[in-house]
Amino acid sequence: MSIPKRCWQFAILLLAAFICFSEAQYNNSNPHEPEFFNEEAAQFLLTQMNDVYWASATAYRQFADDTLSPEILMREKLRPFYGTMQKFDWQNFVDPLLKRQFEVILRGAKYPPINYKFKRATSTLKNMSRKKWVCNMKEPSKCNMAFVHQIKTVFTNSDDLDEIKHYWKEWRNKMPAEVKEALHYYIAYYRNMSTPDVQPSAFWYDQYEDPHLIYELEKLMDSLRPFYREIHAHLRNILRHKYGDDVIPPTGLIPHHLMEQVTYQAWKKETVLQNPFVQRKLPNMQTELDGAGFKPFDLVNISVQFFGSLGFRNLTDEFMNDHFIEMGAGTGGPDCKSRIFDFGEVELHFCPKVYYKKLLQTHGDIAAVQYAIEKNNFRVGLNQEACPGFGAALGEAVILSVSTPKHLQQRLGILQNYDYDDLLNLNRLYRLAAHTMLTLPTYFVHEKLWVDMIDGRVQPEHYNCHYWNLMQKYMGVEPPLQTDPGVYDMPYKFYEGIVDQFRSTKKLFDEFLGYQIYRAICLNIGEFERRNAYKPLDNCDFHGDKHAGKFLYDMMSAGSSKPWREIIKPLTSIKLTNMTATAFLEYYEPLNTWISEDNVSKNLRVGWMPIDKCKLGTTLPPNATNVFY
């Protein structure tokens, strides 16, 4: 029997009233503060906080705020309790979980209350890619072009360099002043939290429990640099052949609009890129999926069954019917991105389309659902993910497993007419690397620039040139055109990456740690053996392996009861607690070897010549080959 809409509305109003009443009990002059600030009183307080948290999470699912992240909203719901919590001597609690719970929750006390300015700045940065402020090149009177829906399509499909260059420049020149104002608001927001002893970036990395995480990320990028330089030289040669020698400057730097074009075309069949062995065509995955007759909910079922094969408790039909909802056509943005409510009661709104990228992403979505179910066994504070991006890293490890030819052929029954020999597999790795190896340095540049901004290592008048210096160092690119004075040239993903939901830290973290978790599991279960051509890392599928499932389950079921470094420690015999690039380099090692040898055979110069954009006229002499990056 369906419940009348009025009843739902009345129930939600009662729920909201309960939340307000519960919070009011703990406002400034709280008459119900415990008489003794001991562990028993702390447990009682946290029980009441848990009730408020769950009630707030339930209400949020009914009235989702599309500006602020759930984490920020839940932090605000617990704010009335912070003052009472800080009166406890929680650092000396005997119960380690209780101590950890106080530690995690009280991180929220460091942040100022959310106000209108914060919400406005967040909304501006989060939505800027969909705002229409650029005029059509062919019809200048029509100024209704947004980046994500229109300009990105031009970059993806056009071979007209003048057109691509035009939109690259105009999007930046026409950017509304409110975007720069929102950026500066966020810089001030983090600086205002700092003290003489604590830099703003320490708050940025607070949930990672490492104020100097940027240095670990920097070491990871340094480890990838030799491989990236080989890819850069290979790509530069392709672009010269396609567009002519004059598109690449003598410095060897690639114009940024061309690098963006390559990145956007990474998942496209017809692309600037040319696979290493053109005679060995990669399968048309859409044709394969259509031939198998998959429907949108089939992708969900396949993903659920994957976790069942690992020993996870099966999600019942009743649970999926109640908690999994097919999105309406046209929702989810251009990438048909699923929406997951992974706090409080779990809910998945899944994409109504079937294509290969969505097959992989759905496995990541179900990983997030499984993670949410496990961590929700903890009370408030401990029911969070270990750190932002940790859940996505677990999902990335699963995606790497299900994307292997072994899994697609043996488990899903597709690609039966393809023999993945070394040549075809190199083509596959090439397309994967084109996407990953060109995006990781981009996210790192955004991360490094942002940290330098908030920590004051670069002044506002040098923000733009510092950005291009970083882009040169880590990506070997330069601006294709000079923009107007005072304009910031960073792409929309930089601005998005400042907002909690899309922070660039998460992307870097989940990619590196995801590969690392994948490699560790594959080593532990014997599906990957070094120097064994029959068990390469890039074809390790751990479907059906309960031992692999135990590793994933243990990490998921830890919630935030321990720091993330402690959670990953059991993965390796040496109890490794830091991120490394080893897994990434081993995964792509066959491709790295091929590209390096191909570059040598074509006598291609690897590297590029730096130009200090903050000090004009400092281009290094052409014969200074020892200063190539």
TrEMBL record:
Residues 1-24 form the signal peptide. Its EC number is 3.4.-.-. The keyword Glycoprotein applies. Pfam families: Peptidase_M2. It comes from the Eukaryota. Binds 1 zinc ion per subunit. Disulfide bonds join C135-C143, C522-C540. Its cofactor is Zn(2+). InterPro entries: Peptidase_M2. Keywords: Carboxypeptidase, Disulfide bond, Glycoprotein, Hydrolase, Metal-binding, Metalloprotease, Protease, Signal, Zinc. Belongs to the peptidase M2 family. This is Angiotensin-converting enzyme. It comes from Bactrocera dorsalis (Oriental fruit fly).
